Model the fold of this input.
Amino acid sequence: MCEAARGIPERLSEFYKRLGSQGKAGTADGALARLRSTMDEVEDAMSGIPKKTPPPAPGMPDRRMCPPLDDFVTKNPDGSISAITKNHRIDIRADGSTRIINKRTGTVEFQN
Done:
């Protein structure tokens, strides 16, 4: 548990910082696994909200950021992965390069 809970913008910024410092994964599956573990690490350290397994239903958020759930992940024939979260679209190429796009604004918030 963290000393003091932080807001979502600060946690999201830390998530992008940590994800970027790891470099590019070699595969799409590796990039997705890294994205999920990094999100959980940031939320465990900074949110003050215990992880629930399974996570809350989409209409019942608990203010903890959640990595893409399996139901919202598509593995494409070319080896790439597409994933959707509440506020983002995630495109992972077969080589592990990743783009995270804000669904509301269309802004690329993270890319490696």
User: Anything to note?
Assistant: The chain is about 30% helix and 20% strand. The mean pLDDT is 92.
